[in-house]
């Protein structure tokens, strides 16, 4: 079955909620905001390939994660998950913005991207953690 890779920006409370409830977005009404490779991303990068498009979507998720932390200088966390394409619809506000119609269970998470140092803004210092390393991600926050 085909899956769509999405990137969910979370703050520390969102990561703790994911660990406790085993899903993201269960208590929210409407769609869950995420980022993915969309037709707009592909049009914006016509000479790109799948890897470059994924990087563009991850970049937008990092920007959104920066706004979640406000002025606190906390670490950004971006959850990468593979979901059913039927869950994904176009969002607004950026080329990669999408809405996810269903809660995303922990079983769909494939990785966590976490700032190496609190207050980081770039992508070069993001650490990668496998989905099985949620406890380690929690320790970092």
Structure explained in plain terms:
With 141 residues, the protein is α+β, with helices and mostly antiparallel strands. Helices cover 30% and strands 30% of the residues. It contains four helices and nine strands. Helix 1 packs antiparallel against helix 4.
Strand content: 25-35%
Q: Could you say which overall geometry the principal axes of the C-alpha atoms support? A: globular
> What is the number of beta strands?
9
* Biggest sheet, spatial arrangement of strands: 5-6-3-1-4-8-9
- What's the average pLDDT? 92
Total helical elements: 4
Oligomer: single chain
Radius of gyration: 14 Å
**Amino- and carboxy-terminal Cα gap:** 34 Å
Helix content: 25-40%
Structural class: alpha+beta
Spans where pLDDT lies below 50 across 5 or more residues: none
The biggest sheet, with number of strands, parallel, antiparallel or mixed sense and barrel status, is: 7 strands, antiparallel
SSE order, one letter for each helix or strand: EHEEHHEEEEEEH
């Amino acid at each position: 079955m085909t899956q769509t890779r999405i990137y969910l920006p979370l703050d520390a409370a969102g990561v703790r909620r994911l660990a406790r409830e085993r899903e993201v977005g269960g208590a929210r009404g409407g769609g869950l905001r995420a980022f993915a490779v969309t037709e707009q991303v592909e049009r914006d990068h016509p000479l790109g390939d799948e890897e470059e498009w994924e990087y563009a979507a991850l970049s937008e998720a990092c920007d959104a994660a920066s706004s979640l932390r406000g002025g606190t200088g906390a670490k950004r966390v971006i959850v990468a998950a593979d979901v059913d394409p039927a869950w994904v619809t176009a969002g607004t506000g950026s080329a990669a913005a999408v809405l996810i119609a269903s809660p995303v269970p922990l079983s769909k998470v494939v990785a966590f991207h976490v700032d190496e140092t609190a207050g980081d803004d770039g992508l070069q210092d993001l650490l990668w953690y496998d989905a099985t390393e949620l406890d380690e991600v929690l320790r970092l926050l």
